[in-house]
Amino acid sequence: MPIDIPIEINLHQQSAYITLKYSDRTFDLAAEYLRVYSPSAEVMGHGPGQEKLQVGKENVSIKEIVPVGNYAIQIVYDDGHDTGIYSWEYLYELGCEYSEKWTNYLKRLKEAGYERVEQ
Prior knowledge:
three-stranded antiparallel β-sheet, NE0471 N-terminal domain-like, alpha+beta, 28% helix, 4 helices, globular
C-alpha cells in the first residue's frame, strides 16, 4: 500500500499548528496534539504499554520543522523537545485519527486528575 506523502507542509508559528496538505485532503494539527503524540521514546516509551502521559503542553509552540531524508520530519518545540521523528505514515495517521486520538488524550488527562489550562 502506498504511503501518503504531504505535498505541502506549512508552519503557523503564531497560531501554533501545522497544515499538512495532501492531494486529496488537508489536516490542521495543533502543536499540543503533535507534541503529546510525539513518536519519541520519551513519549512512547520503548514498547507497548510504556507510553508516558504528557501534561502541561497546552501552550507549547513549534519552533522549527526539519526534514529527515525523504521519509519524515523532525519537529522542534519551544519546550525543548526535539527527538521525535514523524514519518509520513505517522503524520497521515495523526491526521486521519485526530478525533479519536484527541478524545483519548483528554480522557487520559481527566483520569490522571489533570485539568488543562490554556493561556
